Amino acid sequence: MRFYLTTHKRHWLRLTDVPLFLKSEHWDRAIKWDVARGPYAIDSGGFMELKDKGTWTRPPRKYVDDLRRIWEHVGPYDWAAPQDWMCEKAIIEGGWFGGQYFVGTHLSVAEHQRRTVANFLELRSLAPDLRIAPVLQGDTIPAYERCVELYERAGVDLRAEPVVGLGSVCRLQSTRQGAAIVTAMAAHGFKLHGFGFKILGLERVGHLLASADSAAWSSHARRRPPLPGHTHKNCANCIDYALMWRERVISAIPTHGQMLLTDRSAA
Known about the structure:
alpha/beta; 9 strands; DpdA; DeoxyPurine in DNA protein A domain-containing protein
C-alpha cells in the first residue's frame, strides 16, 4: 500500500524520497525542473477545475503535452489521473457548500461518468505510454457499478490496470456509505487508489486500497503553532511537519501500518 503525501511544493521532489502527489498545473510556469528522488503521481486538478469553472478548460492534447514535459524533466511518475468528472452534489448542483462556492456543471451523474470514461479513452489514445489511470466515478454503489460497465463496454480491463482511481469518495471516506463503496469496488479485484483519504477513512478501508493520498497535513498544521525552532506563522507549507504528520498517520493504522511503511522499498 503506497501512501502519497499531497503537496503543491514541487521542489519537495528533490528533498525527500517519500511518495508525493502533485497537480500537473504546478509545473505550468516551471523554469527550473527538479528531478524526483522518489516515487510520485500526478493529479489533474479536476476538483478545482470543475468547482471554479464548471467544465474542463484544458484540452486533452494540452494535458498530454503537459504530462509529457513533466515525465521528461522530472522523471517517470507512477501514474497520472485523467481529466475526470467528480460526482459530488456540490460539483453537479453548484452553490455554497462548506463555505466555498461551486459553479456547478448542472449535468447528471450518468453524463459525468460518460465524460470521465470518454476522456480516459482519448488520453490513452493520444499517449498510451504515459501511464494515465482510469478513474471510477459515481454517487452510489449501483452508479459505480454502471461506471465499471462503461469501461468494460469500451474494452478496458480494469483488473489488468496497475491502478484504478476511486473518485468522489473523499467526503464519504469515514462514513458507512464510503466504506461500502470502497468494499464493493475492491471486490472486483481492482487495485484502487483512494483520493484524499484521511486517517479515519484509512482505518476503515485502507487495507482494501493499493494506494491513497492526502493533503490533510496542511490544514492540520494551519490550526496549530509552528514546530519548535520554526519561524514561520504556522507549518501549513512545511516539509518537516508534512513528513512528521505522514509518519503519525501511518503508525496510527494498527493492522496495516507496516504495509504502508514498505512503500519506499517498493519503489
